[in-house]
Amino acid sequence: MKKKLDHIGIAVRDLDSSINFYVTIMNGTLLDRYSSHAPGVESEIAVIDLNGDRIELLSPTNNTTSPIARFIKQKGKGVHHIAYRVDNLDEAINELEQQGVRVLKDTLRQNKHGRRLIYVNPADSEGTIIEYCDYPELD
C-alpha cells in the first residue's frame, strides 16, 4: 500500500514557546490549536504548516496519564512520532497484521479533523513511534 508522510509529532513542554519558535523562526503558520482529553491522548495540540508540510506540537495536559508526559519523562522532548497517510486505514491495518507487524488497537480513533489513526507497536519498528492515518471524510 502506498504511504505518504502526513506529519511529524513533536513532544514539547511549553506549547506557547514552541508555537512561537515554529511561527517566528521557521516561518510556519499556526493552523489550529486544540485540546484532546480523550483517554490515552490527554494533550494540547498545535498544528503548524511549514510550506505544505505539517508539524504537530504535542503538550501533555495530564502529567500522570498522558502518553506525551510519559514520553517526555522517558526520552525527553523532541520527535514523538512520524505519521504516514494511507488511502484506507482498515486495509493498511490488515496489511500490517499480515506482515506480522502489531498495531496498538487501543489507539485507533478519529480526531477532530476527521483523521482516523492508529499507532504501530514501536517494538516492531525499531523503537520509532509510527502512526498510520487516513481522512475518509476528505476522500
Task: Give a topology summary.
Layout lengths: L2 E9 L3 H11 L3 E8 L6 E8 L2 E8 L6 H9 L2 E9 L2 H10 L4 E8 L5 E5 L9 E5 L5
Parallel strand pairs: 1-4, 5-8
Antiparallel strand pairs: 1-5, 2-3, 3-4, 6-7, 7-8
Percent of residues in beta strands?
35-45%
CATH topology: 2,3-Dihydroxybiphenyl 1,2-Dioxygenase, domain 1
Question: Compute the gyration radius: what is it?
Answer: 15 Å
Helix proportion = 10-25%
Q: Main sheet: which strands, in order across?
A: 2-3-4-1-5-8-7-6
Indicate the CATH class.
Alpha Beta
Distance between the termini: 16 Å
- Looking at how many chains there are and whether they match, the oligomeric state comes to single chain
By DSSP (H or I, 4+ residues per run), the number of helices equals: 3
Low-pLDDT regions: none
Report a brief summary of the structure:
This is Glyoxalase. By secondary structure, the chain is an alpha+beta fold.
